Structures are given as structure tokens and as C-alpha cells.
Amino acid sequence: MRVPPLPAQEWDDAVEQALSSMSPERRNPERAGNLLATMVRHPKLTRAFLRFNFHLLYGSTLPPRLRELAVLRVAHLTECEYEWRHHVEMGRDEGLTDDVIDAVQRGEASDELDRAVLRAVDELQDSANVSDATWAALSEHLEERQLMDLVFTIGCYGALAMAINTFGVEPDAENLAER
């Protein structure tokens, strides 16, 4: 672990302000989870990141099921166990079955849109660009703003996976489900 979670006794007004948009439970150092407790070591960055991430989670035009499909593929490709474990549960809440989640690891999907989403993740992770063919396939199902939200979702969760992996954020005890 390169950047450990901030100990509860060090949570101060700057941390409280950084987390002001979070539920009271998530502002509690004992319940925040390892990622949030690590991020608050840099309160200004945490506040800015959370604002962006909240858009992707709660204000995005992208259907939540597709968001979770994309995030799971990012987590798999980046070998980000923390992100994977959190988003398996979130994906299930959005209707992803265990078979679909298993297929994400293989880069497989049963319908055209899901396959295009997985290809978009693969292409963005590989070359920081979506091919014309994948863009065309996505465009048959998604509007312009949804396409933009998809790209930013993939980028945000890719960056988050990089931070989690680099900082050595350990999975939370309640998310120790098997992969």
C-alpha cells in the first residue's frame, strides 16, 4: 500500500467539505470505505473528482446497465480488483446477470449494443480512440450525449483504476465476493 487510508482521527474540516455531497454514512471515517478514505488525503482533488463522478453515476444520459457493463470491462482490463468488486454488485443492481458479468471478462456479449460497448472500452484502453466501426455501431443505439457520457465514463473509471492500483487501495471487507 503506497497511499494508506487517512486515519479517522485525522479527518478534519477540509475532509468534511470535500465529502459534503456524500451521505452522512459515507462521511463517517469508519464507514467510508478504503477508496474514499484514501482519496481524502487530497481533499480538493476528492471534491472535484466526486463532482465529476456523481454526474457519471447519477446525471449521465447513459443507461445505468451500460455504464456498469463498461465499468466492469475497464476494471477487468486494468486488473482493478477494488473497482471490479464494487461494480459487480452495482451491475447486479442494474440487471446484469452473473453470466453477463462472466462474459465481460472474456469480452463477449449477446447483443450488438453490449458488444459495441465492450469494444469501445477495449479500444479506448488500447489506443485512446474509438474506431469508426465501433462508433457507428454505438451510434445506431445511442444519442450524441450518451456517446459522450460513455467515453467519459470509460475514461473516468480507467483513471480511477490507475489510481486505485497505483496507491494500493485494498478491497473493503464487505466487498470480498469471489471474482
Descriptive report:
- With 179 residues, the protein is an all-alpha fold.
- It folds into 2 domains: 6-56, no CATH class; 61-165, AhpD-like (Up-down Bundle).
- It is built from 9 helices and no strands.
- α4 runs antiparallel to α5 (81-93) and α4 packs across α7.
- The protein is elongated, with a radius of gyration of 17 Å.
- The chain starts with 12 loop residues before the first helix and ends in a 12-residue tail after the last helix.
- GO terms for molecular function: peroxiredoxin activity.
- It holds the Pfam family CMD.
- It comes from Mycobacterium lehmannii.
CATH superfamily of the largest domain: AhpD-like
Poorly predicted residue ranges: none
* Strand proportion: under 5%
Please provide the count of β strands. 0
Spatial gap, N to C terminus: 21 Å
What shape does the CA trace take? elongated
Q: The CATH topology of the largest domain, please?
A: AhpD-like
**CATH class type of the largest domain:** Mainly Alpha
Question: What is the topological layout?
Answer:
Elements: H1 13-18, H2 34-39, H3 43-59, H4 64-77, H5 81-93, H6 98-106, H7 112-127, H8 132-139, H9 144-167
Helix pairs in contact: 4-5, 4-7, 4-9, 7-8, 7-9
Which structural traits does this protein have?
single chain, 179 residues, mainly alpha, AhpD-like, 2 domains, 0% strand, elongated, Carboxymuconolactone decarboxylase
